[in-house]
Amino acid sequence: xxxxxxxxxxVPHAEALALLDGLYEHSPWIAAKALEARPFQSLAHLKYxxxxxxxxxxHQAQLDLIRAHPELAGKAMISQGLTAxxxxxxxxxxxxxxSPQEFATIQQLNADYNTRFGFPFILAVRGTRGNGLTRQQxxxxxxxxxxxxxxxxxxxxxxxxxxxVELRLNDKFGMHPTLGDIQWDWHEAMAQYSDxxxxxxxxxTVTYLTDAHRACAAFLESKMHECGFDDVSIxxxxxxxxxxxxxxxxxxxxxxxxxxxxxxxxxxxxxxLGILTPMLCVQQLHAQxxxxxxxxxxxxxxxxxxxxxxxxxxxxxxxxxxxxxxxLDQKDTDGITMREAMAHAGLNxxxxxxxxxNAADYLGFIEIHVEQGPVLxxxxxPLGIVTSIxxxxxYLCEITGLASHAGTTPMLTRRDAATAAAEVVLYxxxxxxxxxxxxxxVGMLNVPNGSINVVPGRCLFSLDLRAPIDAQRDAMASDVxxxxxxxxxRRGVTVSFxxxxxxxxAPSAPAWQQRWEAAVHALGVPLHAMPSGAGHDAMKLHKIMxxxxxxVRGQNSGISHxxxxxxxxxxxxxxxxxxxxxxxxxxxxxxx
Amino acid sequence: xxxxxxxxxxVPHAEALALLDGLYEHSPWIAAKALEARPFQSLAHLKYxxxxxxxxxxHQAQLDLIRAHPELAGKAMISQGLTAxxxxxxxxxxxxxxSPQEFATIQQLNADYNTRFGFPFILAVRGTRGNGLTRQQxxxxxxxxxxxxxxxxxxxxxxxxxxxVELRLNDKFGMHPTLGDIQWDWHEAMAQYSDxxxxxxxxxTVTYLTDAHRACAAFLESKMHECGFDDVSIxxxxxxxxxxxxxxxxxxxxxxxxxxxxxxxxxxxxxxLGILTPMLCVQQLHAQxxxxxxxxxxxxxxxxxxxxxxxxxxxxxxxxxxxxxxxLDQKDTDGITMREAMAHAGLNxxxxxxxxxNAADYLGFIEIHVEQGPVLxxxxxPLGIVTSIxxxxxYLCEITGLASHAGTTPMLTRRDAATAAAEVVLYxxxxxxxxxxxxxxVGMLNVPNGSINVVPGRCLFSLDLRAPIDAQRDAMASDVxxxxxxxxxRRGVTVSFxxxxxxxxAPSAPAWQQRWEAAVHALGVPLHAMPSGAGHDAMKLHKIMxxxxxxVRGQNSGISHxxxxxxxxxxxxxxxxxxxxxxxxxxxxxxx
Lengths: 592, 592
Fold this sequence. Notes:
Oligomer: homodimer
Radius of gyration of chain A: 26 Å
Helix content of chain A: 40-55%
């Protein structure tokens, strides 16, 4: 029998509990406690209620739950203790068909893992799409996670347990994230295109106007046609533009989109999620024959990452007329100018000016994006409301002291460039933490040609300071620079700064942020408001129209710009659902 | 008229002051105050008295003195303000014959220097041997010193003023550091030999058994013969051994010496000073027909630096039977084994065992060495009494945190490897400073492949911890390692250590340290006792016989393992004088 939420919400507690049997390994108390929060607004609501119960149950209960699980592909799997669900899942992942070598590897990993952490390794072997990881993926994940910090790894096990339960719950309720799965597959399909030198290594790299890049554009163009967009075109800089027309011909337009280029050896979701999600919404509208009181314009921006050429945000910037003609003469590492690359791609440089949009034609800009950070993952919350895209300022710094013999230079007479830099590193950390939502990072730190027996005479480091409001960022930067100078003065070393970037914050337009909030709220998912630490195309559009963003949780601590970037088809589905809610809500507003 | 110390010590103050006229530029008050310390035991005593007056006169008086000097090669030199002495000195250095380009360069340097520091550049243009720097040397020094920290540069100007005065005083007293000059010239002569690839660049590199190395051995052998040593030979590992025999044939032997190999692009004095100084003492004894009640054995050790092969202290170690046979199969970067290099040099590997000394034949081992540190230079003291060669322990460490996005990872959820390392760096500094004479250094510090916008996931660093007593070193090392673990535990990052070196401390034998003290005291030079932070051949001999070392002040903050390593012929002379005092005193002891 397939369960419904209505049923769970209305039957007596004991009956509901029986219906939810077998979710958490030998731990019905979690569902029992979660049921106190009935009625559930959505399956996502029920899932979150259960994660909250476990979160509040304390360390020992969490550990007990983890320890209630058998080892991966262990003997227990065959003989004892494992729930039927677990057996199914491990078997689906092919773990019952390990080669002797794979089996030996996994047993060694089990032993190493247990020695290190004192609990068994938990992995949702059905993966982010629910269709099963390969044995090699399982072994790779196991090996990687062995290096995690114990605290972190405990949390990661709990997240995997919640993922296992999410899939079991989907099965019970006959819920399939159908659109999420489609979109997940589209990400995979796009990830087949990768630049030479990377593709061979199984790495994803799509830089501006390479063959792989143009194949991605062609993919988007073709899928937009399939989805039912009315006008689909590739503009003079390579942006893929799809328009789904409104009921009326004089309607305004809702602009959305994100970028389809990637960093080198990047992830499959960064940018692309913000193109494919609205495409799937249009697909639904078109399938249902629905027209809205506004045009929907989805743009796949050709360039955001600034990898092949130093022309970050080229795609979205061009909609503002921000394309810089001097970029055309920049050469890539093979000596090919951007102008040549554009000609080769059949783009007409003379038409770049025509891309510029008239802001008066637009309602605003919205963008959905993977978080690229650990916040939602750590909170077990699938969607995040962006309050602002942080303003940032960056410096490259060099401290010059006096290199001297580590054995013969007394502590008090040193002019050690590295100890000065160490003070700076800790001050940046402390100062950024003073604000609830500023971040400050020394990402580069290096004593050039350092020797074990030489007091450092030079130390190079970087500063990256970000905050949701420019004034907050500037106050932090001012404090940091003053403190750096004071540290260096006190230590008798000199310092030089090179400002390498300053980007203004882009606070979300309140009305648009509220629309996202309403959409997320409607899904029964908790609201979590947060700044965006990373820059996005919305920063550019911010200059000419109201904008607001929505984040989708990433797996693996939300790692991004990395092949481990990942998100589940369930979370993708929630993003699609939120987007549809926003469109519907906005239609109602516009009509009213 | 040539002055004598007796005269200065006995005439009325005003007369003495008149005789010392023109030492410090327009500042007779320095000599006036110094004369209150009469009688002077030596010219070195008088010199030190004057530096002490200026040291105690305070910052403003020091600045006034510096500002009383005209700019280098400035118009003032020709027209006004410059003492006759200054004019002579600048003219001796050829500064009155600058090319237009050199003149323009110096004027620009003068302007830049004055802008940066607010006082004129002071350089003792007669140099470390008193015979004048070249214009290029002057310009290079000027350019280099422009980068110094203002506090340091002020002290460096004062040191240069003292050097100018030292030379002026030598002139007044008709004092010539004759032996010091000879030895200074020998260092220059030996520095002509340098390994291929370095010699062409004007760099000094003499590694084990290269042609340059063998030329140095031949130079020492030849000079030992000239000095009047009775037996001179090159042993089976390339040590150059000279014996100056005692009166009696059954006498014991005083062992002394140091190494003649160098680091790559090293200095002219490191090691060699400890060979040439006793050679010049023997030259004096021989010239005077004196024999002592003990043999003097001077050894030029062939290898101490471990540059061509990883066989540090090979030369002195062989006297203990510490030569490791497995070294013979080590290859240099050209693939030449040590065995082949020895055969090529005509050394007989089978005789290495014969080098081992019988400790019972020896009184002890003494070694004179440039300080290789900034202590004596900063104190204006020419000689230093070594209390112990520090014990050391070294680690290479790696902190592993979690690389994450600098924009999207909140401060409180980071596992930043670099902030953890920064805490370690500062703890090491603080902990070492707790002991008066321990040193602790993080010389290598690196976030591998760090990016400005990535929270560091890894940080590599080194630990070098040294103290004059092993127990003191071990207590420090234990505290540091505990703290590193505590920092990493608290920050949720992991750390690994690799012990790369542990060397025992070699405290000076009290009787021998006292002999050095007596010798230095006899010269009227203040005693300064200090540990040796660097390792020396005496560490090896320490294992089989009593040892003690004497340090000679280095210029340029005592920099070593660097072409800027430098010392004056006046200081070299004091080293020779101290060594002769020790020999004389030891003769009296031995006779008594």
